[in-house]
Amino acid sequence: MLLNFSLSLCRALHFDRGWFHLRATAVSTATVLGTYGWSLLVEREAGLHVDSVVQAVVIASSLGRVQRAFDRTDRLIACVVLPCAAAGGTELSTLIQHHPDPGDALFTLGVAGSLWVRRFGTRAVRAGTLVVLPLVAVLVVPGGIAPAGGHERTGWAAVTALFALAWGSAVTWAACRAGVVRRPPSVTVAAMPGTNRPGIAASTRMACQAATALAAAFAVGRALWPDHWPWVVLTAFLVASGARSRGDVLVKGVWRTVGASAGTVVAGVVAGSFGPRSDTVVVVIFAVLAVATWLRELSYAYWAGCVTAVLSLLYDWFGQSSGSLLHTRLAGIAVGAVLGISASWLVLPVRTSATVRSRTAAALAGLGELLTADGHDVRAVRTARARFAHRVDQLTLAAAPLKVLEQVPAPRRVAALWGRPLEGLLPPAALRRCAAPADALASATLRAPDALAADAATVRHRSDVAAHALAVRRAIGRRPAPEPAPGQPPLTPAEGPHPAETVTVRAALDAIDAQLDVLTELFGTPPNAPAGPTADTTTPTTEAAR
Q: Are the beta carbons of 337 and 235 closer than 8 angstroms?
């Protein structure tokens, strides 16, 4: 296992082509270090406790990642949400210490509520994420370290959170202006199409799963390890909250257990090497946090291992030997992972295949928008191109657990049990192969909209490919196919030379159509699809859709 882990780590040097994730990590680290310096100043001048510094670092480290997707409006909303959440998290920490049962219940409701509000759109998703950040800090501070009472920390917690947001926004803005990181997608691009499917909404399912997992984790953790219950709750929270599907929960739970166990063992080996309140431990903690942020894009196991090592080092800094608590921490991590996975699989589960189908339909909707966009509307074409690329990325993330499952060595009979779910890898692969043709199509459309609009064969070809994409979407949603328009004449390609843009668009449409054929074979045809030969004999689109 250690050899495989080392080989996987070596691949990290090649996974980040263009060093995009490393550059984003540098921006996040700058946000954390600036917030850390501010929190130290506030702690000294206001006479606060070191737990305020820990809370500030936890919020800043998470904020450095999530704010990459924020636009101007999101940051204005965050100026209200994050300080209030930080103040509430500080009060909740005191409540849990003095009145555990009400505090545990409020913590559980806060996490569940932050997931439930996702039904209200992209901005609500981002606001809910901000609410959770201070709640994580409640679980990170070692028991008995926080002050016994008082509310003087609450105002300063809100001010520090506002500083972290302002400083992080300034660093991110400067990095975007310098071309160090990419600009975040707008809400128009990031928004996913709504669904009118009957049944319980996905956000409600996720909220119920998280509430169940946390309630069980609080109960088990306090019963088995009264002094170290946060380890169980933190693991259950990280595994169950925000998971996209059952497969995502399972993979995250396994990676969390493996990575956290490795991080705990490594931190236990070096425990006591630096001594309490050592400045060297602080430097190591920030270095490990930076590595964790970078390698998270490679595998969640690296993130879990590094963050767990950071928590162990933090305990060591406070003078609590992590080596003597090795078995307790490993047991708490394992129990928390089991509780998180069980809740997500047993309480209103979300199937991975359903998530992949939904994201595939959303990506096809974006592709259809690009195929039907008016070339004279530059903004519409660019928005459609960016939206399609974003939805393909979201589809890839949804199918990632299936990719991990495919790589698990297993006997043929066992592998046959999950053979059909692995078909979920075909849609993201096919749509990723559409990315380059779609980009070429958009670029050619923007360069010569008049020439493309004047070529009847190209216009009809484009319309047929758009109809093919719509047919696949209807097959995914099991919706009846629309009646075909009567009297469509066959394509008659124009004579003479064609502009370079026309040739480019036709090649792009052929490439996209070929990938739609792959999806048609996978999902079939819409119910009540009309039968019979098509009048168009120059392209295979309608025939393939049938």
A: yes
Q: Which amino acid is at 335?
A: V
Distance CA 217, CA 411 (A): 34
What's the rounded Cα separation, in Å, for the pair 223 and 396?
A: 40
Q: What angle do CA 447, 366, 540 make, to 5 degrees?
A: 80
DSSP, res 478: T
Q: At 100, which helix (H) or strand (E)?
A: helix 100-116
Q: How far apart are CA 385 and CA 377, in angstroms?
A: 13
pLDDT at site 48: 84
What pLDDT sits at residue 379?
Answer: 92
Nearest 5°: the CA angle 418, 401, 520 is: 65
Express each pLDDT in 303-335 by its tens digit.
Answer: 888 888 888 888 778 776 655 677 888 899 999
User: Average of pLDDT values for 420-429?
Assistant: 76
Global pTM exceeds 0.90: no
Calpha distance 39→43 (Å, rounded): 6
Q: Tokens in use for 57?
A: 């670092």
Map 209-256 to HEC letters: HHHHHHHHHHHHHHHHCCCCHHHHHHHHHHHHCCCCCHHHHHHHHHHH
- Which residue shows structure tokens 């380059």? 436
User: Which of 338, 330, 339, 331 has its CA nearest to residue 263?
Assistant: 330
Do 368 and 266 contact (CB within 8 A), yes or no? no
Instruction: Please give the C-alpha separations between residue 226 and each of 28, 143, 233, 475, in angstroms, as whole numbers.
Output: 35, 10, 12, 53
* 450 has a pLDDT exceeding 80: yes
Considering only CA atoms, which of 235, 240, 262 is closest in space to residue 250?
Answer: 240
Secondary-structure percent of the chain, ordered helix, strand, coil, rounded to 5: 75, 0, 25
- Please check whether residue 354 is in contact with residue 254, taking contact to mean a CB–CB distance below 8 angstroms: no
Alpha helices in 433-499 (DSSP H): 435-447, 449-454, 456-477
Q: Encode pLDDT of 333-347 as tens digits.
A: 999 999 999 999 999
- DSSP assignment letter at 159: H
Secondary structure (3-state) at 358: helix
pLDDT tens sequence across 242-290: 777 888 898 888 888 888 888 878 877 776 677 777 888 899 899 999 9
